[in-house]
């Protein structure tokens, strides 16, 4: 159904179609990873899934009205973040050769699948604000023009968070090269860390 340049796909908030895209995308990568006992694609699949959902919802939402700048900017920021994250994680796994998180799961179908199901839930849930923002239900309501104080604060927070993540990833990567078995708790990573 098409209305005012927006395409309804299964529901007016794109929740169903983005869930189906996420499940299909993740299961495709799971099939590769399981078949070849290959964990080099796991994080790449997660990061690029964010990119695909952002691009899909932006294009289906329609970007032909003047007040869609917010949707375009938000979608581009998510896509930039997703490409940086998935690119870095792919680079890291190609350098290290293996991901120890999967040592006890790689040969157990249901344990390994469990990781992918969690990743499906993670990607779909974290993508939900942008999915809804780009949906026909929200796009058809109209909005204030782009450039409000909230828009500026949002972009500033994005920039700070993006820079913080880049620095933290670099700190951990450098630390792990020098201390492969060590637990990184230094510099920026010390306040942003999660064990791995």
Distance between the termini: 45 Å
Q: Regions with pLDDT < 50 over 5+ consecutive residues?
A: none
What is the count of helical runs?
7
In round numbers, the mean pLDDT is 87
Helical fraction equals 55-70%
Percentage of residues in DSSP E strands: under 5%
Oligomer status = single chain
How many strand segments? 2
Largest beta sheet: what is the strand line-up? 1-2
| Main sheet makeup | 2 strands, antiparallel
From the helix content, strand content and strand pairing, which structural class follows? mainly alpha
Cα-atom Rg, whole angstroms? 19 Å
Description:
The structure is a single chain. With 196 residues, the protein is mostly helical. The chain folds into 2 domains: 2-143, no CATH class; 147-196, no CATH class. The chain has helices spanning 15-36, 42-61, 69-96, 109-133, 136-139, 149-178, 189-192; strands spanning 2-3, 6-7. A hairpin with a 2-residue loop joins strand 1 (2-3) and strand 2 (6-7). The relative contact order is 0.14.
Write the layout of secondary structure elements.
Layout: E1 2-3, E2 6-7, H1 15-36, H2 42-61, H3 69-96, H4 109-133, H5 136-139, H6 149-178, H7 189-192
Q: Care to give the gist of this entry?
A:
By secondary structure, this protein is mainly α. It is built from seven helices and two strands, in the order E-E-H-H-H-H-H-H-H.
